[in-house]
Every structure is written in C-alpha cells, then in structure tokens.
Design brief:
- The chain has 267 residues and is α/β, with parallel strands linked by helices.
- Helices cover 42% and strands 14% of the residues.
- The protein has ten helices and eight strands.
- The chain has a six-stranded parallel β-sheet, with helices on both faces.
- Strand 5, helix 8 and strand 6 form a beta-alpha-beta unit.
- Helix 6 packs across helix 7.
- The radius of gyration is 18 Å and the shape is globular.
C-alpha cells in the first residue's frame, strides 16, 4: 500500500523542504520506489529544487500546479490530478523516472482566505481537498511525500488529513520541544474534528500520526555535536523516544549547491 507522508513544522527555516526533496529522491533512485513529491508550499521551494524558473513558468501557464487543484475545489469543479503531475523533462529524470512532482504556485499564498470565505472554515471539504485529489492515484505510487507550508493553516491541514504519517523536521534547539508539542496537539485536534464530521455520515477516519522527528542542521565541533545542541536532542529523545530518529542531518553547504544544479545530493 502507498504511504502518504507529510513533512511539517509550523516555523520556516528548519530544512523541511530540503529533507522532503532529498528523501523523495533517495526513495526513487536508491530504493526503486515509485514516488510522488507534492509541493504544497506557496513558496515553491521544493519545486525550484528540481526545476528552473522557465520550466516552472511553462507548467504554470499550462495549468499544471497545485493551484489548479484548489481552484477546482473552490469552483466545485472536478480535476484529474494526473493532469498536473510532472513525470518527465526534469534534470532528475535523466537518472530516475521513479520521481514525479506536482509543482506549487506562488498564488497559493491567499488560498487560506479563499477557502475560509468560499467553503467555510468549519466545513469538512475545506480540509479534504487534497485527500480527494490523491485518492484515485494511490495505486500508482509506493510513496507520496508532501512538503507543507511553515504553518498549520488549511493547506497543511489538507496535507495532514490526506496523510497516513507525519514527519516533523526540527533544529536541535531548546524551542524544538515546545514546537513539537504544539504540532502534536494541533494534529490531534484536527483528527478529532474530522473524525466527528465523518462519523455523522457513517464513515470512519483514522487520521495521521506523527511517526518521526528528524534533527536537521546539527553542528559539530572538535569533540562532536555542540553541547547545547546535544542537550536539546537528548531532551527530545527522552520525551519522544519511539519516534525520534537516531540518525540526523549535519549542517552542510552541499544542499544549496546542489539546489542550483537541480539535482538532489542523494543522487
């Protein structure tokens, strides 16, 4: 069965996009997994990690971005999500055909207001647009990875509702514990709200669970991981021992270098 995983954090600058793209590329290239990367962030960073601006503009003009999925929902129209998937023509496709991408769009920055005003912030549809969009294509993939915006608003809620699992990317700092607790609480509240609404129609909804916490930008000194960072990492591991990954990502300049090349580091 396909695994749908959202990469989340309510704050930016933690490297969430980097890990979503790199892990998607590794699954496709090294493990031969059919992988779909969905860029749900209006900043379009995951998109520009894999394609240049001219390529993106071509897809945007032809209506092949996440914007079309949400616009269709807002106008009560149907869209086949296969029509907005980029499956060839990128630099990465010279190395593997297993990674497909749904590009984001800068105009998604206002979609939360549009959803609230035209669908209603309490409506079930407001949080299930993405789930309904990807349900017909789940048999086409082994993994669907969703890079979420750095907030917990409607697009991120759509991603969580569509997912089986959530991965939280955090920096090894004191405030990480507060952020992780907040994300857990929001996800639990969201799942409970959707569950109540679905049960009114006789349905069932399990909801996504946080299955992983990944440390990013870990810094090393002469004696290993810096003391403050090691302390923060140990605090997180004590509180969430079952879901905190033992492996972590060290701080490196390779990621921005490879972003300019449009080829992930893990290829």
């Amino acid at each position: 069965m396909v695994k749908v995983v959202s990469f989340v954090n309510y704050k930016g600058g933690v490297g969430k996009t980097t890990l979503a793209v790199e892990i998607s590329a590794a699954l496709a290239y090294h493990y031969d997994k059919r992988t779909l990367l969905i860029d749900a962030d209006p900043q379009t960073n995951a998109t520009f990690y894999l394609m240049d601006e001219h390529t993106w503009e071509r897809y945007a003009r032809s209506g092949r971005t996440m914007k079309e999925l949400f616009d269709a929902a807002l106008n009560n129209q149907h869209i086949d999500i296969r029509n907005i998937i980029v499956s060839s023509g990128l630099e990465i496709h010279q190395r593997t055909q297993n990674l497909h991408v749904i590009p984001s769009h800068l105009d998604l920055h206002s979609i939360d207001l549009d959803i609230a005003s035209r669908i209603g912030k309490e409506a079930l549809k407001a949080r299930t647009i993405l789930k309904e969009g990807i349900d017909p294509i789940k048999d086409d993939y082994d993994y669907i990875i969703i890079d979420c915006p750095p907030n917990m608003y409607f697009i991120t809620q759509n991603a969580i509702v569509a997912s089986d699992s959530v991965v939280i990317v955090v920096l090894p700092e004191y405030l990480a514990i507060i952020g992780i607790s907040l994300i857990h609480r929001i996800i639990n509240m969201l799942n409970e709200d959707i569950r109540r609404q679905v049960e009114k129609f006789g349905g069932r909804f399990e909801g996504a669970r946080v299955k992983g916490i990944i440390f990013n930008r870990v810094r090393h000194g002469p004696y290993g991981i810096l003391v403050d960072q090691r302390r923060s990492m140990n605090d997180v591991r004590r509180q969430w021992p079952d879901i905190t990954f033992e492996n972590y990502v060290s701080e490196t300049v390779r990621f921005p270098e490879r972003t300019r090349m449009k080829i992930p580091c893990l290829l």
